[in-house]
Amino acid sequence: MRISLKWLSEYVALPSPEEVARKLTAVGLEVEAMERTGQGLRGVVAARVLSSEKHPNAEKLSVTRIDRGEGEPLQIVCGAKNYAVGDVVPLATIGTVLPGGAKIEKAKLRGVESFGMLCSARELGLSPDASGLLILPPEVKPGTPIAEALGLEDVLLEVNVTPNRPDCLSHLGIARELAAILGQPVRLPAPKLAEAGGPASDAVKVRIDAPDRCARYAARVVEGVKIGPSPAWLARRLEACGVRSISNVVDATNYVLLELGHPLHAFDLERVAGREIVVRTAHPGERLATLDGKVRTLAPDDLLVADRDRGSALAGVMGGGDSEIAAGTTRVLVESAWFEPSGIRRTSRRHGLKTEASYRFERGADPGMVIPAVDRCAALIAELAGGVVRPGIVDAHPRQNARPEVRLRWRRPAELLGMEVSREDARRILIGLGFEERASDADGATFRVPTWRVDVSIEEDLVEEIVRTLGYDSIPATLPANAVVMPAEPVEAQAISRIRAALEASGFSEAVNFSFVAARALEPFGRSVETGDGSGRALGIALKNPISNDLAVMRTTLVPSLLADLAHDRRQRIEDVRLYEIARTYGTGARPEEAPSAEALQVAGVVAGRRVPVGWAAPGDVVDFYDAKAAVAGVLEALGIDGARFEAPGASWLHPRTSAVVTRGGEVLGDVGELHPRVAQAFELPRGVLAFELRLDALLRAAELVPQYRPFPRLPAVLRDLAVVVDDAVTAASVEGLVREEPLVEAVTLFDVYRGAPLPAGKKNLALAITYRAADRTLTDEEADRVHARIVKRLAAVGAELRT
Predict the structure, then answer these.
(1) What's the number of CA atoms in the CB half-sphere (13 Å) around residue 14?
(2) Which terminus of the chain is more solvent-facing, meaning fewer CB atoms within 10 Å of its CB: N or C?
(3) Please, what are the domains in the chain?
């Protein structure tokens, strides 16, 4: 909203522009920009033409003598022909830089010296008219700065008005705010309305057929108008606020809109069929030609201002072309109404029309401004266009807008703000803002809300009005009465944070997907759920109103969403992908009548492509099972989970030869491995895609989020390597378990697995590094040898042969 301080000063006495901007910003009306107009015309003054003679060497030029208000008259060579001796015109003196960038210097034109330039409106940047000099009013004294002579000196503020404050979308609304802050009265505009002729009710009738959408419709009639351009002062005010000047009648409606904040519309009364205004909703398929030149097909929800035969305007949004003000208009009907905001908003969005009127109506216009606005506009039209206002207002008022009354307890500001506010200050501020005190007692008072404040309805709103007027910086810094104990971060949140850190350290990026997928995406996973009606099983819990068929059921696993992400990335030629997601899956509750679904948090990830990017120092090996396993192991380590086992095979949606189920203490934590070929095919993915899925509830039960202190060893360890040959079916984990049965074994690390010659087929060699340590003494070589021998014997019992 652009606000002219020159215009605003007509309603309230103002401090400096900087102070106005500071005070408005402090009460929630942020001033985003400040522009000083007329600054580019320094050096241009009013001057009177004393004489004008033909140039001796040029037919199209004249030599003039100019009185600039001081010193000797100046000689100016001029090419314009529209002036006469005695006229007052703009003079750009030597050294002036005009808005177009031209710098005025002493010049010699066809042998005659010129000491400045007489200017047109175009050269001053005021209008595109370059047909001749700009002729100023004769009473303007020579030497007067042109910005002052034309009333161009002003300060414009760009005010960011929040959606809940439609009352501030006008100069009067801003004036009310400043008056309350400064403790001054508001000077309201007082229209001088001279009525004559027959009553307005004889010229037009008004009927409201949609009272739920239009609470009030008032009309005045102005006759004998003459359409023409607006006076310069009015056009400049509109243009300063970003509104184009059109004609005196149309400009009057826009002027009142910017002044009072209430949208108005003017009809050519001769084009209103039957001299009747009907406010109704549109008929199915009805069409209306709007002022922007488009013919629009209306919906039955659109509100129309119509005449007897057809629609005349899209109510609260835009007028119609059939009844617009034209050059031959002599009788004008001025409309002022209150329309229901949500309906205007729907119509505006439906037709893609954002106008100054719809912007205000859809936020909530002031029902109390309907009559003052139409009176002000009618008086202005009569003044500008020479018309006569018919007596009376045609006012259809089927529904009253009740003004709410809100009670304020005197102690409430202190309770909410931590600052004491005296009842005298509270009264002064609220009354200054337009609130009317209806009743009071020792505990509080009841205030009637002014019609323009649609955002005030509860006690806290009144407290907000008080504190923003006093200044938010006046709220003291106070400590809470009771010490606040900050609760510890929930265990689940701690675990999720550590899981994210572990996976991102392994090169994964987090994905966020919809909680619903296509039913076919769940088919390869075999996780059907009971239907809600108990009639059988389904792939997932079906949505009653899905966005599309591809998002029709709640997902029972996170993996399909990640596979769809991976497939999308591959279509974009992104081959190396590591994605994870932490989210809920949805099954059927144990007791559907109490809990229709069972929601479980899961962690899932997919890995595809190369282990590291191809480069001169890296061969670009393709990821395999152990990359996915390492990612899962990183999660387990981050949660402090020891003793987890990876046992083949994994879930049915994984390849049986390269997958594992992750367990600890007999509880399943999740699955990891390569996708089963049928699953990869279902998502149009190649072989070799790895995935994992972990159950967060099981991880939490096994987690040790608080590290346990373990003292550093004080005694030396003995290191031994052990290489044994076992059948391929024997797992390294089972061999490691047998080694750990020896009490003096501190650590076991598998550092090599070998298959091939000279080993027989079906055999493999496992190489282990074993650390022996005693807590109470230094082990001797003899003790270590005896322990090592016992381990070899224990392994031999399960078919392991010592490799020498």
Answers:
(1) 24
(2) C
(3) 2-38+154-182 (3.30.56.10), 39-149 (2.40.50.140), 200-396 (3.50.40.10), 405-474 (3.30.56.10), 491-702 (3.30.930.10), 718-802 (3.30.70.380)
